[in-house]
Design goal:
Belongs to the TRAFAC class translation factor GTPase superfamily. Classic translation factor GTPase family. EIF2G subfamily. Residues 39-65 have a biased composition (Basic and acidic residues). It comes from Candidatus Iainarchaeum sp. The longest helix has 17 residues, at 217-233. The chain has helices at residues 9-13, 26-31, 40-53, 56-64, 87-95, 103-108, 162-169, 188-199, 217-233, 252-262, 356-359; strands spanning 75-81, 115-123, 133-134, 138-139, 142-143, 145-154, 174-180, 205-210, 241-243, 275-282, 298-305, 313-320, 323-334, 337-338, 348-352, 368-370, 379-388, 405-410, 413-423, 426-435, 442-449, 452-461. A seven-stranded mixed β-sheet has the order 3-2-6-1-7-8-9, with helices on both faces. The chain has eleven helices and 22 strands. With 462 residues, it is α+β, with helices and mostly antiparallel strands. The protein has three domains: 75-262, Rossmann fold; 275-370, Translation factors (Elongation Factor Tu (Ef-tu), domain 3); 379-461, Elongation Factor Tu (Ef-tu), domain 3, CATH 2.40.30.10.
């Protein structure tokens, strides 16, 4: 028997690139096995049969991903609200996944980092009203038909983690604002998160009145009226309010129905140059992995425009020490397996040939992955038109002044800037490190109030 030829490093890396899962997707494994060839007639008949049974979401996906049939999420929905109001519990009720996985999160019982989970929404023929919606394949003996796949972004609600929430808001197309029925409304982070959504121009917001199982009917109605007034004060008068008990999965079907009706799938512009905000980065290699079997760093985030495929040349900006770097994509995956092509929305993991040591522990969070040469050069100087937010809670801050430090959130990047000049609403800043920003881009601005940073307004880059 002749000896088997040795594989190159690229041949070892490409077929086995992983994200955070320890094992490869069974769907991806199946695609590597040889398949028997079908005649043109057989293929046509099978395709026609599939599209007769498929929903529009399934049929559209099959046309884009004919090999793997792995659905990509088509919308990102944020889970926002005050600390301990039940955001992570509600994420689990909708997706089946508990997104607090970091050891410190488990110990403290709060979200510290952005959490991510996907859910398939189904409709069940034969059932009526809210009961015909859900996130399970089967309900009351009825087989569900897929409506769409949704990515949820679970944002932390603690006051010290507001900048983390703001970086997550850059990825959101709509949001659920979770408000506990057993506490007065608004709580500080309830108001601040809604302001953040307003800055991000996120209009499609649904309020989830959680923990209704802990209050009487009278107190639930009192809470409802407080929420209505709060929403009117912030310009979200028409936002639906859905009472639920996340821990008991009560009324979750009504919430899914409301999401389907009030948070439509945005139109993804696949013709524009590729751009993806990086919100996570990883080293997926286990300790002790042999050098020739090590995989490159993985960059996670959401595509805002364009598409991404394996082998594509892209740029990471602002890069390392303010110098963009060009890399090649070795794999494109979501939580279910490898994709032929990634489109806008959903949470994507892009395999690269970067040293995994420099991408570990979210070190590339805040960077942008884009088509080479399509974004402005990184800069450490910024001029903005500043817009102050009206605040219902807390004291009004004086107008920004020279030498004041501000925390700026641009996309998924958070950076400190020092004010060097103020002329009416125009503010010039020098940044602590370089960042990539486009003219006209909105920037969330946090300012120090006593011992904490508070969301105070936003700026428009000029």
């Amino acid at each position: 028997m002749s000896p088997r030829p040795k594989k190159t490093k690229e041949e070892v890396v490409a077929p086995t690139t992983e994200t955070t899962e320890a094992t490869a997707s069974p769907i991806a494994e199946k695609t590597t096995k040889p398949r028997a060839k079908k005649t043109k007639t057989e293929t046509k008949t099978e395709t026609e049969t599939k599209h007769e049974k498929a929903t529009p979401a399934e049929a559209a996906h099959e046309s884009k991903h004919p090999k793997t049939h792995i659905l990509q999420a088509e919308i990102n929905i944020g889970m926002t609200g005050h600390v301990d109001h039940g955001k992570t519990s509600l994420t689990k009720a909708l997706t089946g996944k508990w997104t607090d996985t970091h050891s410190e999160e488990l110990k403290r019982g709060i979200s510290i980092r952005l959490g991510y989970a996907d859910a398939l929404f189904y409709e069940y023929p034969g059932l009526e009203g809210a009961a015909k919606f859900g996130s399970l394949k089967e309900k009351e003996g009825k087989q569900g038909k897929i409506l769409r796949k949704v990515s949820f972004i679970d944002a932390p609600g603690h006051e010290t983690l507001m900048t983390t929430m703001l970086s997550g808001a850059a990825l959101m197309d709509g949001a659920l604002l979770v408000i506990a029925a057993n506490e007065p409304c608004p709580q500080p982070r309830t108001a601040e998160h809604l302001m953040a959504l307003k800055i991000g121009n996120i209009q499609n917001v649904i309020v989830v009145q959680n923990k209704v199982d802990l209050v009487t009917k009278e107190n639930a109605l009192k809470s409802y009226n407080e929420i209505k007034k709060f929403l009117a004060d912030y310009g979200y008068t028409n936002a639906p309010i859905i009472p639920v008990s996340a821990n008991f999965n009560a009324n979750v079907d009504a919430l899914i129905q409301t999401i389907q009706e009030h948070i439509p799938t945005p139109k993804g512009d696949v013709e524009k140059p590729f751009k993806m905000y990086i919100s996570r980065s990883f080293d997926v290699n286990k300790p002790g992995t042999e050098l020739d079997k090590m995989l490159g760093g993985v960059l996670g985030g959401s595509i805002s425009q364009g598409t991404l495929v394996k082998g594509q040349k892209v740029e990471v900006t602002p890069g390392i020490e303010g110098k963009p770097i060009q890399i090649e994509i070795t794999s494109v995956r979501n939580a279910d397996g490898e994709l032929d092509r990634a489109n806008p929305r959903g949470l994507i993991a892009a395999g690269t040939k970067l040293d995994p040591g420099i991408t570990s522990m979210d070190k590339f969070k805040g960077q942008i992955l884009c088509a080479p040469g399509t974004l402005p050069a990184p800069t450490d100087k910024l001029a903005i038109d500043f817009f102050e937010l009206d605040r219902l809670l807390g004291n009004k801050l004086p107008f920004p002044h020279v030498h004041e430090l501000m925390v700026l959130t641009v996309g998924t990047n958070t950076i400190v800037g020092e004010v060097v000049n103020v002329k009416k609403s125009r503010i010039d800043l020098v940044l602590k490190s370089k960042m990539t920003i486009e003219k006209g881009q909105k920037i969330a601005i946090s300012r120090r109030e006593t011992a904490a940073w508070r969301l105070a307004g936003y700026g428009i880059a000029v």
